[in-house]
Structure formats: C-alpha cells, structure tokens
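User: Please fill in residues for this 205-position structure.
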C-alpha cells in the first residue's frame, strides 16, 4: 500500500513510519526539518514543507491509497496547527479521491472525557487547554468529512518496543493508562484495512 503519514517526526509518527516500512508499505511523509526524522528506507519519500501549506499537503498525498495523521502541537507551533493541518489533509484527500484516514487523537477528547483521571482533567483545563481545544476541533473536522475515518484515542504514551498487550475498543469503561507508542502505531496501521471501528473512536490503553 502507498501510505502518506503526517506528524512523522513525533514519537508515535516515527513508529507508524517504521512499522509501515517494515510491513512493506511505500511511505511518503511531510516534514519541516528532515534532521528530526531518523528513519531511512528505500521506500520512504520525503516532502519538505508545512502541513498548513495546502500545496505541500497535496504533494505528499499524490498517489497515496490511505493516510495516517499523528500531528501534535508543540510550543513553537501556531494555535490550532493540528486542526487546521488536518483540515488541509481532508481537503486534499477529497480533491484526490483518497478515502481512508486514520487519526491519532487522545483520551479525554470528546465523549471520552470521563475515561481520564481527575488530575488529568484539571490539566486539560490548564496547561493542556490549548492542545485539547485543538484536538476537539480536529476531531470535529474529521467527523464532518465524507471520508472513511477512524479516530484512535490513546492513553498516556510511553517509549519502548511493542508488547501487543493492550486494551482497545469503544467501551466507555476503558480507563486511561500508559500504552507504548509502538503498540499505538501497530493498532493505527491495522485500521487502514479493518472496518471494525470505521467512523468510530476506539480508545487504546
């Protein structure tokens, strides 16, 4: 499969790219700073630019069959870079007739608010307020699109190898706990061809 990945220089994004290449996929990524992408492969193609630039997004998507979006917001990014960037991805996908979109969001967004502990809810109202407002807006754009989307909501992300030992699903009783980025990446890649959670928001912890 020819796959486009956005957010490839983040922790989860790097895992998605690495595992996709190991699985034999051809991967195109959009990066602002290629030095931050430590992965190299003969089936990995780089487009240099910003997700807020629609033309660069269109270039990244050209010829792709599916898209993984693992955008994150850091201190030096503009407000709503995740949601505005995702809107560009949606627009370009619709223009090019690409249907499958798998988005990495977070537990605590939307109707999963009660699946995170009280201490984290307080952080969502303070230090994480802008990031969560951005994620809420991102999810809204995805839900309102006509794409074949899946929104994956992980709990607290950790580094390390994939364990295969995680809980995923739609049960609101699934509470946030730590999960390896590598496990999240594996679950994200499963959603490219599995319709179990089509147009839904599974948690993974």
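Assistant: Residues filled in for all 205 positions:
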């Amino acid at each position: 499969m020819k796959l486009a990945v956005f957010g490839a220089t983040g922790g989860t994004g790097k895992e998605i790219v690495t595992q996709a290449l190991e699985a034999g996929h051809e991967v195109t990524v959009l990066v602002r700073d290629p030095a931050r992408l430590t992965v190299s492969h003969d089936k990995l193609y780089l487009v240099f630019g910003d997700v807020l630039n629609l033309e660069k997004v269109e270039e990244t998507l050209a010829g792709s069959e599916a898209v993984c979006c693992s955008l994150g917001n850091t201190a030096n990014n503009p407000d709503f870079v995740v949601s505005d960037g995702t809107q560009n991805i949606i627009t370009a996908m619709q223009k090019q007739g690409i249907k499958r979109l798998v988005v990495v969001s977070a537990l605590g967004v939307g109707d999963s608010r009660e699946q995170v502990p009280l201490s984290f809810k307080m952080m969502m109202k303070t230090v994480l307020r802008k990031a969560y407002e951005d994620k809420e807006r991102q999810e809204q754009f995805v839900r309102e699109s006509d794409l074949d989307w899946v929104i994956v909501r992980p709990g607290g992300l950790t580094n390390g190898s994939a364990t295969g030992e995680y809980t995923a699903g739609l049960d609101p009783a699934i509470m946030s706990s730590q999960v390896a980025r590598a496990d999240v990446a594996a679950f994200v890649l499963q959603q490219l061809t599995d319709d179990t959670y089509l147009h839904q928001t599974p948690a993974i912890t």
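For context: The first strand starts at residue 2 and ends at 6.
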